[in-house]
Amino acid sequence: MKKTTMNAPEMTDENFLDRMFSKSESIRTRKATQTALNVFDYFCQNEMGLNGESKEQMISQYQKWLKPEKDESGERPDPDIKKICLSLDKFVRFMSKDHDDIQVNTHATFKAKASRSIKLYFTFVKTYLRVVHGVRITTEDIKDYVIFPKHRKEARRPVSIDSLKLLFGKCDPERRALYYVLISSGMRLGEALSLKKSNFHIKESPIRVSILADDTKTREARETYISAEAWERVKPIFDFKKDGEYLFLKFADIPKGVVGEDRYFLRLRDRLGLTERYNNSCRAVINIHSFRSYFITKASMKHGSDYSHAISGHGSYLKEYIRIPPEERARKYLTLELDLLVESVKVQAEKTKDSIIENLESQMEELMNKMKRIELLNAIKYLINEGILVVD
Q1: Between 54-66 and 27-48, two packed helices, what is the crossing angle to 10 degrees?
Q2: Is 99 helix (H, G, I), strand (E, B) or coil?
Q3: Are residues 179 and 323 in the same domain?
Q4: What SS3 class is residue 103?
Q5: pLDDT tens, 92-126?
Q6: Does 330 share its domain with 367?
Q7: Domain boundaries, position 366
Q8: Which positions ≥6 away from 188 have C-beta within 8 Å?
């Protein structure tokens, strides 16, 4: 019987990306991995300078350091892990700086990455080198030779009610409804874009919204609510849409919808002059994800952090939340709802305006009363002068 030989399956870049997607079931993870590989490619090009072959040459060098060729005596030297790690340390420092000479697209050059992004991209590249090219580096090796930039935490500032009113007043009606859903429910943007008519339980008070497991980041189904103020804006869209249609999604799929809504919000924010950024950061103080943070803050202040984390979809808290009876969940939200109002809340400028109007009305009333008294006195004088009224 003739023996057949099987070629070992090869892992390619594309296979690796598909594998990352299947593990996480997240298109965004696949895109983040692809971005990490692109950044590594820019680094290799910067180091090697070989057009179109820099990454392959760099990885080939890593493989030689990991498994050196035998010397003249026929002995194989020990692996030079240190050189690989020092090269990857350069990769970290490369990501920490702007590179104006590297064009990433027709409109932008390479910009320094945030410390969290650097660690994330490094992890993807480390996995890629091991899985696809057999370059294995231990955690201890990385601790010894690779230095990551420290993450500087600047206190996040809450979005003000004045800014919310300005944003909600200047966007189109469908976006206004979407923003009301985000700020009154604590949903992530992708979760809100996944909503269809079947997700809403409109006969209940407050209106309950069921989010399917496939549409959440944690892959755990959960329930939240929207305010009556939000429902007023959602209802016209809800009535217009057919069963099975997305209420808010304007793009081909949800990941593209998230990117599209981020861009729309950025343009809206810039048009309104809400462009303040945190120190030494590209992160704006106000972004579309501020709505979720606003909800979490209000929910924490009203019912505690465990409740706010659970209702907004932080997986580790969901089991405790599910144990709360549905009636109690609804009651808790109703007591929170007043704190989530936007249009019904008066900002300081409106309060000042109302105070001025009240003072003017009070002065007008006092003036009118004074004029009535004067008219009455003049009438009495006339009657006395004509002899009609006699005063003893």
Answers
A1: 90
A2: strand
A3: yes
A4: strand
A5: 999 999 999 998 888 888 988 888 899 999 999 99
A6: no
A7: 352-392
A8: 216, 217, 292, 313
